[in-house]
Amino acid sequence: MLTIGTTYRPATDLGYLLVKHPDRVHEFELPTGRATVCFPEADEARCTAALVLEVDAPDRRAAPDGFSLGRFVNDRPYAASSLMSAALNKAFRTAMAGRSKDRPELVATAIPLEIRIPVLRCRGGADLADRLFAPLGYDVAAAAIPLDEGHPEWGESPYVDLQLRGTVRLADALHHLYVLLPVLDDAKHYWVSTDEVDKLVRAGEGWLAGHPERELIVRRYLAHSRALSEPALERLAESDDLVVADSVDAVLPADADEDAPSLAVVRRAAVLRVLRESGAQRVLDLGCGPGALLADLMADRRFTEIVGVDIAPRVLAIAARRLRLDRPGAIAERDRQRIALVQSALTYRDARLGGYDAAVLMEVIEHVDESRLPALVRSVFGSARPGTVIVTTPNAEYNTRYAGLAAGAMRHTDHRFEWTRAQFADWAAAVSAANDYAVTIEGVGPADADLGAPTQLAVFTAAGGNA
Amino acid sequence: MTELPVPALSLVALIGISGAGKSTFARRHFLPSQVLSSDAFRAMVADDETDQSASAAAFDALHYVAGKRLAAGRLTVIDATHVQEHARSTLVALARAHDVLPVAIVLDLPEEECWSRTEQRPDRSFGRGVLARQSRDLRRTLKRLNREGFRTVHVLRGRDEIEAATIRLQPLYTDRRELAGPFDVIGDVHGCRSELETLLTRLGWTISRDDAGRPVNAEHPEGRTAVFVGDLVDRGPDSPGVLRLVMGMVRSGTALCVNGNHEAKLLRKLRGKQVTVSHGLAETLEQLDGEDGGFVADATAFIDGLVSHYILDGGRLAVAHAGIKEEYQGRASGRVRAFCLYGDTTGETDEYGLPVRYPWADDYRGPATVVYGHTTTVDPQWVNNTICVDTGCVFGGELTALRYPERTLVSVPAEREHYAPATPLATTVPERPGDLLDVADVLPGSGRRQLDTPYGRIPIEAPQAAAALEILGRFAIDPRWLIYLPPTMAPAPTSKADGYLEHPREAFDGYREAGVTRVICEEKHMGSRALVLVCRDEAAAARRFGVTDGETGAIYTRTGRPFFTPPLTADLLARVRAAVSAADLWAALETDWLLLDTEILPWSAKAGELIRGQYASVGAAAGAALPATLDVLATAINRGLDVTALRDRTRDRATNAALFTAAYQRYVRPTTDLTGVTIAPFAVLAAEGTNLATNDNGWHLSIADRLVAADSTLFTRTARVPVDLDDPATTEAAEKWWSELTDAGGEGMVVKPADGLVRTARGGLAQPGLKCRGREYLRIIYGPDYTTPDTLAGLRGRNLGRKRSLALREHSLGLAALDRHAAGEPLWRVHELVFGILALESEPVDPRL
Fold this sequence. Notes:
By secondary structure, chain A is α/β, with parallel strands linked by helices.
């Protein structure tokens, strides 16, 4: 539910602006339910319109192809969201367009407005509501709602009771709500189609361009794309009572390093340098992720055969898109022939990976449980046996340099371990001895005199060459 | 009449000029599907069987098909002229590539006769010159066939010989699958005659002797057959004595013997070839000097007749000296013989000068058990259904036999070190290479993977396998512990009772329909499913699971993730272990490990994040939104607006939302680490050597009760009510019990057939359980408002078919995984099924069921 009230005199002019008679009840059918507009108060001094949404039970709609429990039990019937935007657009279309037959002059006038949304999911905290609405001329009050009054130890829910007060043109206020409610909500079940971009441009006209949080608004509004959802994985997570992460966050691994972007670039450059020095032409990128290194390898024709290997099919799909392998004819056929993307798990042996000149494990081993590393070593060093193996991994000692990282914390939520230089050196020595490789280790990135470099890089060279 | 022997698995080239009657001959003697004709392939690729310009493409396709047939072990006959050398050499290469024997059958008919036949065929338009050229080529061909590599060559001259010929398919010498045993497979003897006598006696054999007291034969009162893995001779004190005994046994049919590399070398020496006398050959030659010439001649003939390997017991057992990979079993070629004698050698030598062998057994995925020798091991280990039984008797180790089908090892110690080993005998096996899993064990090559189980053939689709690989690869525990995953469970058929979606009555009806009369209703605990695999000690973990890093079991979730951190797991396992000991279950179940199917309580212990992120959030949103709406609507009604219907609906929703919040709150209890956590066991799935999952459910609960009695703080009892479906009194009592249970906030119950594994009248498995969930619990699943009449009516149309099918498919895989593990099958054979369960679990089935 959402209410909009005014103390403009006569307040009942609000009915003219909204093109709704305050003494009647107005009902609208929506694709996903029903909206009712009524006026709980309507006199000279105060007039308030309430938009009440009733969301249909989901199974009355066409069955979605990706099933997950979250589609059936969720906050959509209770919290304001993109559904509320759609309802605003439907119920107050004329007002949003800034037209009024009866009060044309009032349309262009800023009037005192009070807006309340009793339950709004506010991803990023109540503070974000302030950052989004205050620059548009509102006084913002966002009261956090407790998660479960029976369990005060659980703290606050992601919802706020949002109250906005400001002197704003009604059409502008409706546009603000139309865009910013879904941005604050930022729900994962909100999918974007291409015409959403046009809608954003139209609804943001006159205020979005100058908004200090413009980038966040646009990014969130357009963030979620269908191709990234993975129904099969969602089902497996659910059958284990795990939270299904917002797809975008789960897919793109981000380093917690403050200097991550530049470190990632430096790291790739170091790996490429070692690869070139090794003379390798046929190269495996084991745990290739979204394909940043693959793109670099493709740019260098000396690499005649490049295989990107990852355990996650959707990550390989992102890599394919980045390398423009998903559209026929997007790259030259002879480049297309140089690269293949393969799903595999490094704790399993894979005959397809045998016989290459070099393999790269860039920031990969720390994503494998330490107890499962021997299986990885066996399949990479024992079975695939590339002539050169390049392994990079964080240097845990360096973590104290990251102010944003709590003591003892790791750089990424999926890291199973982060090693000191001594730990990495011990592991590398044991692996090389057991598998007949020689190894050298170097640091990558700006080195600290005591702590070393942020990234450690080991180069393993097979004793008998490519075995 | 001429009978032409042809090996049952071979590549037969029919050779003859056009019009010689090859196609007629092929039709008469072989199945149509066995014959690949160049004419037919020309027609296939070019719509015209005489189009010579299509020959290259036609032969390409023909060879491809022939290759597929040979790979599958099927006799294949090629009907083409084959008068040119290059055509035949391609066939010989193809036969070698599949390790089958190339056979030539030449139909040599006078050119005149062929020409007259050709002239009568309207579709043949080539001239006489072509035939003359073919004829000249054939003359040359005849002299060269043997040199070209054809192992069997039959030449039929003239119409009469061709007409009179018949084909007799001969099994390969290695194919003795008609022998079903039981067998005693005996490792490398190397002249240790005395130890061999001791071993045979220990195995129950009766040895007979000649006048000089030398053992010359042996037989077993139970009709067992001995199978010697070769290397009877060299190094040891009495190679002739061993030969005498084994030759006698083979002659009298109580033993089989395959060729060993030492026999092969001895044979070359005995035939006067130049060989380096080393590795104990000198001792044998010296000992043979003391034998008479007749014995040496007999021994030479005996060794000459030894085959590379035997396929026994319907193909379930293969014996070869140095092992044999699946593709070579029942095949014949030079490389098969070399593999059987020397193993998979790389040509390199190690620091001791011994050949480096590729560990072929790591890769072995064949269904036949392979027993072999050749490589000395101290402690024979099963690796992917293969075992090496050479325990180095001649080096002072032991002489070992594998009893088959019992699969037990019997050993006798060497009387002394007869020969110094080149390398010290290894005393430990650091890791079991059979634990190496390959992506090919789990990912479908293309499309789908079929898993054959005694409970049905289960297909796994590629996208599901891909999802399972990601989950298992990133999050699962060590696959050696992961011998099972619990199947999903179907709900009872949808109830028509007012206000209910699920009710005991329909569960009972469901089982009556399946022909079940006795069921047991078990309380369904609302926690998190957990499998608890507990070993009695580290030794059991090492022995049975090959885990030597100190872990003594695992506690894992339904997708194979660890339930707790390693230290908490160790703590909890210690408590479980103590209870199992106190309940005396190790002895009662004759085991040193157990796999328990349990629910770990409370739900919040594991699902806390989910409860807060999903359920509590919905409750919070509803709890704040609906009262605010009601306030606004009340004000509007006071103004005289007619929104009473909306107000009433909103009030109902507010009531339902409160019930929803109350429903999840019941499954929340404060816990810290293991404090407050309990385990509700309800089945004992497996113990040493046995799949217990199919035991009757009363038994399962009785074992669970013993654990509860042993430690009632750790274990939670599962309440149950037995029901006779023919006795209304018991069904009514069970319905009442369910109502009380669910009214008090319980999740519901599971109805299981009392007998455990039950088959329906049509032979399929009956559902192993049907869940019957409480009305309030279902609010968490179907949403706060599911009880409104409209919604409920809509939900009654829910389709249970896929869920029921999924439950049975996963159940089949789970049972088969436990069967295979109980039978000691290799890890990959268990893992492919467990992987399959997880893959199926990602199928898009309505998750609310």
